[in-house]
Amino acid sequence: MTGPFMVCKHDDGDGGVRIMVSGEIDHDVSEALSLILINAAEQSGVRHVVVDLATVPLLGAAGVRSLLTGRQVAVRHGRAFAVANARGVVRDTLRAAGVAGILAVETDAVTA
């Protein structure tokens, strides 16, 4: 990993949670991201979780797995799950992995 990994969570107060991720998502940080996404999806009152990747320059296979884990937990709890603002290499990685549709990837801003 070359840059700092940071996550900011915003609860809109109406059942929406936006997880804004910054930095590279690789093996070094994937477990932490998985735990953060699981926590958001399991919170009471949450109806949908949006993971905003606008400031993520690189997404490794472990990061893809973290997103899939977060989606799996969200769906299990009856919550919607989407990825927003995947651009460039990150978008290409999700498409190449065949998960862009599963993760409801949006390239424009999506509100939570």
Structure description:
There is one protein chain. The chain is of the alpha/beta class. 37% of the residues lie in helices and 23% in strands. The protein contains 3 helices and 4 strands. It has helices spanning 27-42, 61-76, 88-96, and strands at 6-11, 16-22, 48-55, 80-84. A 4-stranded mixed β-sheet has the order 1-2-3-4, covered by helices on one side. Strand 1 and strand 2 form a beta hairpin. The longest helix is centred in the first third of the chain and has 16 residues, at 27-42. The termini are far apart.
Summarize the entry for a quick read.
This protein has 112 residues and is of the alpha/beta class. It has helices at 27-42, 61-76, 88-96, and strands at residues 6-11, 16-22, 48-55, 80-84.
Q: Helical region count?
A: 3
Secondary-structure element series: EEHEHEH
What would you report as the Rg, rounded to the nearest angstrom? 12 Å
The unreliable regions are: none
SSE-based structural type: alpha/beta
Distance between the termini: 28 Å
- The helicity comes to 25-40%
Mean pLDDT metric: 92
Strand order of the largest sheet: 1-2-3-4
Q: How many strand elements?
A: 4
Give the overall shape, derived from the CA principal axes. Answer: globular
Q: Biggest β-sheet, characterized?
A: 4 strands, mixed
Assess the beta-strand content as a share of residues.
15-25%
